[in-house]
Write a structure and sequence with these properties.
This protein has 419 residues and is an all-alpha fold. The chain is built from 15 helices and no strands. Helix 1 runs parallel beside helix 5 and helix 5 packs across helix 12. It is globular, with a radius of gyration of 20 Å.
Length: 419
Amino acid sequence: MFRFDQTFRDEFRNNWIYLLIGFAALFFGFSAPAYALPFLYPEVIKEFGWTREQATLLASAKYFTGAIACLVVGRLLDVIGVWIALLGSITIGAIACIAFLWVNDLTTYYVIGIMLGVAGPCAIVSVFVLVARTFHASQGTATGVALLGTGLGGVVMPVVTEALMSHFGWRYAMALLSLGIWLIALPLLVYGLLRLRIGEEAVAEAEAKQAPVGVLVHLGRLAKGRDFWLMSIAFFVITIVDQAFTQHQVLMLNDAGISTEMAALAIGAIGLLSMPGRIVAGGVLDKSSSRGLAVLYINFALAALFALMLGNVILLVAFIVVRAMAHASAMIDGPVIARHTFGTRHLGVLLGLFTATANLGSATGPWLMGRMYDATSSYNLALYLFVGLVAVSAVLIWLVRPVVWQGEKASAVAQGASQ
């Protein structure tokens, strides 16, 4: 399942500092607001009398904005570099968390969602590009390590958020979640900006040696092939399911008779299991690329089926396990399969496009699930729909041809045979 040869080990030994900074940026800058939102919805519903559709539309505003922002930041990453893009994006996220202090109506609430939409997805794209440009033989595993920041966030943030909301109320709780950004993530990124830019310059020099091709011409060529569209549709559809679960999971667990405190522990368990899940998923993609990802996607269908019976303790545990593995694979899929299929040329723009596509799915999922619940007073119909959507995504990603990864694998085999 795993690759652990000398090249793999050398990459980790020489570039671990990039993973540390990426981890911190994702833990504090992405995870803090992302995992807090499901605990926010019951509070605003109770205080303002909003419907589930209105409350969870914050996530749709966030991800729809993120889709647009990713297109911009993808190009900026190729021009201004990862460090500045990361500094800007997570600073906006910190300001958005503080802005919850002044929420009294839906307009202000959704404006904050727009700010979070600029911050979170752009931070993710920036870290993906940082890892893809720094790691090659071990990109899948390295991406999984960086994404441990979101995994640990999934463990810590639900418990911390629930405790802060219990003691300080939801407004001050959201503001306090920004402290990690100000005190830890931003100083580390400043260090990266000042001390680690040589790595980015080396990448720029290597890419400059390739035959020059304009970004629009390059993307136009990719868009003429089937793999670009297979990946775009698969990522869009799978994130509909992923974010519908993420944003509604507290409400779903409450409906099953599970208290908010116990829901926080269950969601924390999902985050805990997703941490090794990211490493496992990364190893699977390093070893078997798109076909391994198609198999990993099956966990989403299992999660939807188990979610129909969360009141059963055994099925609740099963849901936690498969949901953790599913979420881990959804976080790691785009950057790895994109490089496996298309290489690193104009990678910032390419990952921006795929992340934008995924964000459109993320914007659709929470709204769709909320709408279907309000129409039927149950999540069951949405869960059955999600099983079918997962099947579509798995088939599409199975058909993708990761030609760059196949070429690198063949070269490694040939080199080993000649030694």
